[in-house]
Amino acid sequence: LPYVPHVPPTALLGKVTATTFALERPCCVFDRHADASDAVWLAVAFANASAAFRNPRSRADVPPYKQLPTARSYMTLETAAAAYSCSAQSPPVLRVGGDTACRDQGRQDPCNGPLPSPGPYRVKFLLMGCRGPKAETLWSEPILLRTALSPSTIDPAPARRGSDVVVIASILASLGSVLATAVLVALGAKVWGSLCHQDLGTDAFTRRSYRTHHIPPAPSHSLPTSSRCSPPGLCCSAPQSPAPCQ
Questions:
Q1: In a domain, 190, yes or no
Q2: DSSP letter for each residue of 204-216
Q3: Quick check: is 171 in a domain?
Q4: What angle is formed at CA 100 by the lines to CA 56 and CA 67, rounded to 5 degrees?
Q5: Which of 62, 123, 180, 234 is most buried, taking the most CB atoms under 10 A from its CB?
Q6: pLDDT tens-digit profile of 95-127?
Q7: How far, in Å, CA of 172 to CA of 125, rounded?
Q8: Of 232, 209, 207, 229, whose CA–CA distance to 220 is shortest?
């Protein structure tokens, strides 16, 4: 079949790891060749051993996962062909090497165990019926897994530079907080001073405009002559009689 298996081109978390990789599900590829009882398998082989791979004649001849180190290939992900039809509601991605249980338990049936080395690997899909293989896809391009680094090869300098950046960022954040506090204090002092100035002006105006009620003294010319007092120690002389007529 003119279909080439491939890793999904879109961004995907854990698309390729040190022991697994993701494959795009081949939808609508086997519809014209598959029957209800058929199954689709995934053949996995080291890239330099894919040319020597031979399709098994029956399910009993499927190479198991545990023979990968010696046989350089195995088959896994046995799935009903209906799961790859155009109308199937299935996840769009398959993960190769995602089953850690089969390695730990040493099961004999075909399983999807973690890949033992970075590879590279090549894969193809194989449609098998009761009488053997019925159709197959092309081999994929070589797929290279990630390689874990030894702790002794990791340069600690980037970590130190990262710590310096964190310290600088903390200092800048502190300075920003201090500056914001100073601005708030200055604005508060200015507002408080303005309010105090307004209060002082109002009190002064009130004091200047307030008048006490009092009676001014009466003018001296309004008093009668007889009621005027002489200076202390002096007597008032009696008024003189007019001179008699001659």
A1: no
A2: HHHHHH------P
A3: no
A4: 35
A5: 123
A6: 999 988 875 555 556 789 999 999 999 999 999
A7: 58
A8: 229
Q: How many CB atoms lie within 10 A of CB 24?
A: 15
Structure token pair of residue 39: 């199954």
**CB of 86 closer than 8 Å to CB of 25:** no
Facing residues of 95 across strands?
Answer: 22
Residue 123: inside a domain: yes
List, for residues 144-172, the tens digit of each pLDDT value.
999 866 556 555 555 454 556 666 777 77
Give the C-alpha separation, 240 to 244, whole Å.
12
The length of the chain, given as a count of residues = 246
Q: How far is CA 233 from CA 23, 97, 229, 238, 240, in A?
A: 137, 138, 11, 16, 21
Q: Is 33 exposed, middle or buried (0-12, 13-18, 19+ CB in 10 A)?
A: middle
Q: 124: how many CB neighbours lie within 10 A of its CB? A: 22
pTM above 0.70, yes or no: no
Indicate the number of domains in the chain. 1
Q: In angstroms, rounded to a whole number, what is the distance separating the alpha carbons of residues 124 and 141?
A: 10
Q: Which two tokens stand for residue 219?
A: 């003018």
Instruction: Say how far apart CA 144 and CA 122 lie, in whole Å.
Output: 9
Q: Could you tell me the residue range of the domain that residue 122 belongs to?
A: 21-148
